[in-house]
Automatic annotation (TrEMBL):
Alphabetized InterPro entries for the sequence: Ig-like_fold
Organism: Flagellimonas aurea
Protein name (record): DUF5017 domain-containing protein
């Protein structure tokens, strides 16, 4: 009888744990989201549709769906963490809806709202949508291919690149009358570590779009060699060990986000790595529990978001009792 009781208690504990997320998430299933724009039968001139709705307390994200009115073909299914979404759209009739979501619950979708997108030769109400690279893109490569979406009413495109270093900015490239939607930047433009803002606008005989902007962050400096803090070299420790390390300050023109790579090995040449940990930042700490006593070796190196890899630290040894 006692065994059955223990099984029931264990099952109850499992049920409680599996519903923990539900307990901490707000139940939004009966809440209602209100659409702001576009509303029913709204006509949008140009190539850009901005969907907006009122935020909902308890919703972590919102799912936006758009379909063609005549075929019900889904043209957009996007999960966003804010209460607006701007996307390029071709001409045609569409319907859209939105719902709120958190980890455990969703609201019902709003009632579909129909809208019409009309093409226009007036570029002043349109935008060039940049494709790649992403905004605030860290790289160590000084050859980058820029890409943007086709703008139907544009006859050509203008590209401008501005370099900023130490608070000083200068235009390093100006290309007009581009008919392609891609352009390759090379070392003549990306000529040193700095922030490079690239801007594209569409142009026709009567109008032009505003510039669309993104930033490339060129960082070719290798991260500093880290220093190991604890445990000390040749220290005898228990089975649970807190490793910690630091790194000199990055003084480069562009300081890419760093991550540390901690390696623990059973051989001094690291031919047999027991465990590898990746930790955000140039300084950090990580706890490891050893299963067996013996002698172990550890080291750390830095990598940055631009792809630069630094030197390993010195190797330290510990003895686990």
């Amino acid at each position: 009888m006692k065994r059955i009781s223990n099984l029931l208690v264990g099952l109850a504990a499992v049920l409680v744990c599996t519903s923990c997320d539900d307990i901490f998430e707000e139940d939004i299933s009966d809440d209602i989201i209100t659409i702001i724009t576009p509303t029913q039968d709204e006509v949008i001139s140009g190539n850009t549709v901005t969907f907006m709705w009122n935020g909902l307390e308890g919703a972590d994200n919102y799912r936006v769906q758009v379909s063609r009115s005549n075929t019900s073909e889904m043209t957009l299914d996007s999960l966003v963490g804010k209460t607006s979404l701007s996307v390029p759209f071709p001409s045609g009739e569409f319907e859209w809806r939105v719902r709120g979501e958190n980890f455990a619950y969703t609201t019902s979708y709003t009632f579909p709202e129909g809208f019409l997108v009309e093409s226009s030769n007036d570029l002043s109400v349109q935008n060039v949508f940049l494709s790649t690279p992403s905004d605030n893109f860290y790289t160590r490569n000084n050859t980058i291919i820029l890409n943007w979406s086709v703008l139907e009413a544009a006859e050509s495109y203008s590209l401008q690149v501005t370099k900023t270093i130490g608070g000083n900015s200068s235009v390093t490239l100006q290309q007009d009358e581009l008919v392609s939607t891609s352009f390759t930047l090379d070392a003549n433009t990306l000529d040193g570590d700095a922030a490079f803002k690239w801007s594209v606008k569409g142009v026709n005989e009567t109008s032009e779009t505003p510039f669309s902007n993104r930033t490339i962050l060129l960082d070719t400096q290798v991260p500093n060699q880290p220093s190991l803090i604890s445990p000390n070299d040749a220290e005898t420790v228990g089975t649970i060990v807190d490793f910690s390390w630091g790194s000199p300050e990055d003084i480069g023109a562009v300081q890419s986000p760093l991550q540390s790579l901690l390696e623990i090995a059973t051989e001094e040449d690291f031919s047999a790595i027991l465990q590898t940990y990746t930790v955000a930042g140039g300084s950090g700490e990580r706890q490891h529990e050893f299963s067996n006593p013996g002698e172990y070796f550890w080291r750390v190196r830095m990598e940055d978001q631009a792809g630069n890899i630094g030197q390993y630290s010195v190797v330290k040894t510990i003895t686990v009792e």
